[in-house]
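User: quick one, sequence for these C-alpha cells?
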C-alpha cells in the first residue's frame, strides 16, 4: 500500500523538464508522498521536497507508474534501459508530443496499459488541462490515471488518437500562443502611452478574470464578447479589427495548423525505432 491517495505505488519520472516538473509540483501540492516518487535524469539535479533523484534507473525496483517526460528525440536513448524494468502491471504514461501509442508499444511491449497524456504547464498550479488517450488500458488503469491527472486540473479522454493530438495542440501549445497575445497586447498599450510594467500587470489580471468568467459561464465566448461590446462603442471598434478578413480567426487557424503539421512530422519520425 502507498501512503498517497493519488499513487497506487512507486512512480518513476523519466526526465523532469518543464512539463514533467510542473506535473510533479502539482502532484506534491495535491498530497502525493515524495517517498513514492523517483526522478531519473542524467544531470542528477535535485528537485527538492524529499523526492529521490537518480542518474540511472534503480536496481531491483518495479514501478507501478512510469511517466515518460524526456524530449521525444530522446526516446530511443532511454527505451533500451527502461523497457526491461517494466512489469505487465506497470502503467506507462507518455507526455511525448507526436509519439503515438504504436510507436510506444514497439519499444515497450510488456506493460498492459500504455496511456498518452497531454498536459499544459498550468498543472503546476493544479489549474491545467490534461488530455488522455489509450487503446489498451483497462477500466481500473483508466480510473487510476484519471484520478492522478484530475489532481492537476481538468481531464478529458479522447478515443481518436488523431483528435487527441489536435486537442493537445489546442491545450498544451496554445498557452504559449496566449502568452504571445498578452505580450503583444502589453506592447500595444505601451506604444500608446501606458507604462509597460503596468500594462503587463493589467493584461495578465484581465486574462485571468476573463478566463475564469468564460469557464464559469454557460454561454460561449462569442456571446460573452457580444455582451462586452456596446453598439458603436470602444470595444466594438477594437473587435472590428480582430474580426476583419485577415484578422484573428485566419491567423489562429494558420497557427494551430502549423502546430498540427509539425506534430504529424514528429509522429512519422517516431514510428520506427532508431537502429
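Assistant:
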Amino acid at each position: 500500500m502507498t501512503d498517497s491517495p493519488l499513487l497506487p505505488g512507486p512512480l518513476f519520472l523519466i526526465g523532469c523538464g518543464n512539463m514533467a516538473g510542473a506535473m510533479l509540483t502539482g502532484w506534491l501540492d495535491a498530497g502525493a508522498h515524495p517517498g513514492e516518487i523517483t526522478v531519473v535524469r542524467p544531470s542528477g539535479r535535485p528537485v527538492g521536497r524529499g523526492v529521490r533523484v537518480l542518474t540511472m534507473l534503480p536496481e531491483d525496483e518495479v514501478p507501478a507508474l512510469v511517466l515518460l517526460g524526456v524530449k521525444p528525440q530522446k526516446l530511443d536513448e532511454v527505451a533500451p534501459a527502461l523497457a526491461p524494468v517494466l512489469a505487465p502491471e506497470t502503467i506507462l504514461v507518455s507526455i511525448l508530443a507526436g509519439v503515438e501509442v504504436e510507436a510506444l508499444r514497439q519499444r515497450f511491449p510488456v506493460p498492459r496499459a500504455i496511456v498518452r497524456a497531454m498536459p499544459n504547464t498550468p498543472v503546476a498550479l493544479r489549474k491545467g488541462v490534461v488530455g488522455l488517450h489509450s487503446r489498451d488500458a483497462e477500466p481500473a488503469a483508466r480510473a487510476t490515471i484519471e484520478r492522478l491527472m484530475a489532481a492537476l486540473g481538468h481531464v478529458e479522454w479522447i478515443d481518436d488518437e488523431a483528435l487527441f493530438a489536435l486537442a493537445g495542440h489546442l491545450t498544451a501549445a496554445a498557452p504559449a500562443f496566449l502568452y504571445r497575445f498578452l505580450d503583444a497586447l502589453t506592447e500595444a498599450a505601451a506604444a500608446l502611452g501606458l507604462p509597460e510594467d503596468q500594462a503587463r500587470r493589467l493584461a495578465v489580471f484581465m486574462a485571468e478574470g476573463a478566463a475564469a468568467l468564460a469557464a464559469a459561464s454557460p454561454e460561449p465566448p462569442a456571446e460573452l464578447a457580444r455582451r462586452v461590446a456596446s453598439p458603436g462603442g470602444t470595444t466594438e471598434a477594437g473587435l472590428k479589427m480582430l474580426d476583419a478578413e485577415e484578422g484573428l480567426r485566419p491567423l489562429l487557424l494558420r497557427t494551430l495548423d502549423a502546430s498540427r503539421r509539425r506534430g504529424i512530422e514528429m509522429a512519422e519520425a517516431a514510428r520506427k525505432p532508431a537502429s
